[in-house]
Amino acid sequence: MLTRLLPVLPLLLCPLLMLACMWVMRQREPPERQARAGQEDLPTAARVAQLERELAELRGRLPQAGAGEPASAPRLDPPRASPNGQTGATGLTGRR
C-alpha cells in the first residue's frame, strides 16, 4: 500500500503546502501597512489638506512651459511600414 502511495504523495501534498504558504503570507503584515499606520490616524479632512499641500509643492517644482495651458497629450509613434509596403495593421492581414 505504501509503495503505491509514494508516487502520488507529492501530488497530494502540493495543495496542502500551497494552503500553508498562503496562510503564512496572510499572517505577515506587509511593511507598507506598517509605514501607513501613522497616516491612517489623520481625519479625512486633514489628510486631504496634506495631499493638497503636497500637490501644490509638486506643481511648483514643474517647469513653467505655459501659464494655464494644459499638458500636451503624449505623441504616438508613427506606424512602421510592413515588408510589403503597407503601414499599420493592414500590412499584417495580407492583401485582399
Order of helices and strands: HHHH
Shape: flat
Task: Please describe the biggest sheet, giving its number of strands, its sense, and whether it closes into a barrel.
Answer: none
Q: Helix content range of the residues, please?
A: 55-70%
Low-confidence stretches: none
Can you offer a commentary on this structure?
There is one protein chain. The chain is an all-alpha fold and 96 residues long. The mean pLDDT is 75. The chain has four helices and no strands. It is flat. The termini are far apart.
Chain-wise SSE layout:
Blueprint (H helix, E strand, L loop, with lengths): L1 H26 L3 H5 L8 H18 L28 H4 L3
TL;DR of this structure?
The chain is mostly helical and 96 residues long. The chain is built from four helices and no strands. The protein has helices spanning 2-27, 31-35, 44-61, 90-93.
Q: Characteristics of this structure?
A:
96 residues; mainly alpha
